[in-house]
């Protein structure tokens, strides 16, 4: 479109220049036709030269104006192209920034999820460890309790009998009972506390109680009661097996 406009203007200028030239030379042409001889003045007048010069100047000015318009149009096109390039670069930069921000957000989210998973796993492991320790402690306590019960049962079995084994009779004694485990003692249930002057430690006794129960005990302790009453024995026995009467009498023999 711009090229066509330029050609149109150029043709217009040529036509305009040609018209001026015809207007200038036309009067002289009439003179030549009217007086065709050697003296005829066929050269253009000063006024005609001025008019031609003016026409040339107008044509040059039109060319200069057209060139200026062409340069301005080219500059406008270049500026538009630069603006388009800048806009495209800005769009590329914006998209790159958005992509970087999205990648950063995704990385932060992944890191947070990983940290949360690790924390949950650590808490779960700690809970499992605590549960295992509690179960182990409970099992140990149950085993200890079972061992103590078995020991009490064994002591009762070995010390309570209806055997007719006989020994040297020491007469009738007052019998009381105590549970060593309750007192924090580790002597067990196979012993009896007595007056050590009458029954030294290690003496094996057969105790036939008034309720018909017979116990076999070994002297392994004494008590303050023994000084005031040497005819009293304090028999070791689990609380669950102590006779309800609490105090009994028994005939005692040394085996």
UniProtKB/TrEMBL annotation:
Residues 82-97 have a biased composition (Basic and acidic residues). This is Hydrolase. Keywords: Hydrolase. GO terms for molecular function: hydrolase activity. The keyword Hydrolase applies. It comes from the Bacteria. Residues 71-97 are annotated as: Disordered.
């Amino acid at each position: 479109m711009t090229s066509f406009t330029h050609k149109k203007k150029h043709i217009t200028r040529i036509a305009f220049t040609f018209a001026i030239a015809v207007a200038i030379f036309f009067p002289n042409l009439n003179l030549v036709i009217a007086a065709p001889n050697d003296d005829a003045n066929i050269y253009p007048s000063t006024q005609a030269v001025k008019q031609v010069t003016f026409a040339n100047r107008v044509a040059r000015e039109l060319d200069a104006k057209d060139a200026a318009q062409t340069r301005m149009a080219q500059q406008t096109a270049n500026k538009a192209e630069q603006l388009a390039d800048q806009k495209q670069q800005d769009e590329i930069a914006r998209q790159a920034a958005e992509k970087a921000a999205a990648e950063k957000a995704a990385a932060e989210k992944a890191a947070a999820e990983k940290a949360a998973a690790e924390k949950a796993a650590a808490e779960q492991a700690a809970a499992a460890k605590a549960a295992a320790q509690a179960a182990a402690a409970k099992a140990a306590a149950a085993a200890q309790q079972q061992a103590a019960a078995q020991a009490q049962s064994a002591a009762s079995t070995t010390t309570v009998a209806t055997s007719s084994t006989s020994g040297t009779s020491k007469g009738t004694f007052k019998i009381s009972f105590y549970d060593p485990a309750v007192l924090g003692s580790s002597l067990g249930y196979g012993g009896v506390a007595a007056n050590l002057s009458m029954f030294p430690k290690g003496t094996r006794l057969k105790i036939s109680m008034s309720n018909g129960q017979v116990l076999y005990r070994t002297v392994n302790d004494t008590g303050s009661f023994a000084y005031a009453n040497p005819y009293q024995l304090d028999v070791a026995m689990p609380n669950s097996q102590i006779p309800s009467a609490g105090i009994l009498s028994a005939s005692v023999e040394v085996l």
